[in-house]
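From: lab user (bench 3)
To: helpdesk
Subject: output format question, protein + zinc ion

Hello, I'm new to running complex predictions and I'm not sure whether the block I got back is the full result or only part of it. Here's what I submitted:
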Amino acid sequence: MDKCLSPHEILKIFKDCGALLEGHFLLSSGLHSSQYLQCALVLQHPAHAERLCTLLAQPFQGQGIEVVAAPALGGIIVAHEVARALGARALFTERAEGRMTLRRGFQIASGERTLVVEDVITTGGSTREVIHVIEEYGGKVVGVGCLVDRSGESPFEVERYSLAHLEIPNYPAATCPLCKEGRPVVKPGSRQTKTGG
Ligand SMILES: [Zn+2]
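Helpdesk reply: Thanks, we reran it on our side. This is the complete output you should expect:
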């Protein structure tokens, strides 16, 4: 088993992969921020994905987790690798007409012990939506895990674990100091450089 990595070492992996971006970003929560974690740049390396998600799974070993669920797209690889470490199934929720749903024939049996995972938790909004979907299907959510927690609070009633915390301020658009400076806001995931192609 891999030895534990400190939060500092976890964030160093993100930095080394170029996944800790600086700028002016519109987060999926609708908030603005001067930094963004592009986890896909870490998870594109299967060795990193396996190592980090094995560590994320550790505190949930022996809890009888049968299902690991995550919101698409960002959480899919995390759910897959955590489920591998726990010997569980991995499935994902996705938005259809704005509402988080379980599609593709995924089923959850009544009372199935489910761990909800994410790459990054910012406000916890999408995590709560996934919890709600799992409970609608009769599953029992027993924990929440994420690679990096930048929410700075504990908005969940179940056991929660993250590999690292990152203190990055988020701002509503109306009070965003970067907006006041007139800096254009970027939606991460869209093209970051224009090369004329
Ligand atoms: Zn702004």
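A quick orientation on your result: The chain has six helices and nine strands. Let us know if anything else is unclear.
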